[in-house]
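wait is this the right file?? whatever heres the structure
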């Protein structure tokens, strides 16, 4: 599996609805974003599809990810749900289809929905497949089901205050690429004195520092913003190079501060 096909920086669309998401995606595409991340549960696939269609950016230049919701993990629901996502997104094929969360309480076995996801790829619904919010145990089961080389990425919450080291270590041991969501900890990195200090030294913003810290570790990042200026600023993080001391200072900010931890959905985290 060629992970280099996942652009290192993408545009997240979580919590963005209606005209807000249309504007965000349109602005992002105008500024040069080519990796767009959505999900069935976000309720915005149709708007994301509209913004992409209206942008005039050739389909071949876009990298589009969506995620299968937990209600579509069992039996014959997964493939029809992805066909519906494609219809809303106005696409013939996804670049990446992810399992959004493991089945709550493991009601549906990992092997069952990973097999269905692999079948979706065989049918041409998505070029690549992967997972999101998987624990080490879920990842182990996914690897056993389809093979590590089939898992294009594991998308999880990673930022300076939650570094998810056990999951990162296991994924790397299997050669599984990682995508960091909520990379700015919902703006909390902007208030962190260590980040502010490093940003000043580099004539950058704390958000750019947080993104550069993740990019330098080889993760893809999918920050979201409704502000065109912030979208542009986030994209510029690709040009920021942090020192070893900077990287170590940010690594020391780990405090297991998890933001995405929904009741009834979140697994037993590592």
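ok assuming it is, sequence goes like this
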């Amino acid at each position: 599996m060629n992970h280099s096909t996942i652009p290192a920086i993408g545009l997240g669309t979580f919590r963005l609805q209606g005209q807000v998401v249309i504007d965000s995606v349109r602005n992002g595409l105008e500024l040069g974003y080519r990796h767009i991340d959505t999900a069935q549960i976000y309720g915005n696939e149709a708007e994301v599809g509209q913004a992409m269609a209206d942008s005039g950016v050739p389909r071949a230049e876009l990298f589009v990810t969506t995620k299968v919701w937990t209600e579509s993990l069992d039996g014959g629901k997964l493939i029809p749900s992805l066909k519906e996502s494609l219809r809303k997104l106005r696409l013939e094929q996804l670049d990446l289809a992810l399992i959004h969360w493991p089945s709550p309480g493991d009601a549906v076995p990992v092997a069952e929905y990973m097999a269905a996801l692999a079948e979706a790829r065989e049918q041409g619904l998505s070029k690549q497949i992967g997972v999101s919010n998987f624990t080490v145990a879920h990842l182990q089961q996914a690897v056993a089901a389809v093979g590590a080389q089939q898992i294009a990425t594991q998308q999880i919450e990673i930022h300076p205050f939650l570094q998810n080291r056990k999951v990162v270590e296991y994924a790397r041991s299997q050669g599984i690429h990682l995508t960091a969501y909520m990379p700015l900890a919902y703006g909390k990195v902007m208030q962190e004195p260590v980040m502010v200090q490093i940003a000043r030294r580099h004539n950058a913003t704390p958000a750019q520092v947080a993104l550069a810290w993740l990019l330098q570790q080889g993760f893809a990042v999918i920050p979201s913003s409704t502000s065109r200026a912030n979208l542009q600023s986030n994209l510029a993080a690709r040009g920021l190079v942090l020192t070893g001391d900077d990287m170590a200072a940010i690594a020391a900010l780990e405090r297991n501060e998890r933001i995405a931890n929904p009741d009834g959905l979140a697994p037993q985290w590592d």
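Strands lie at 11-12, 35-37, 63-68, 94-99, 126-132, 151-157, 178-181, 220-221. so i think its the right one actually
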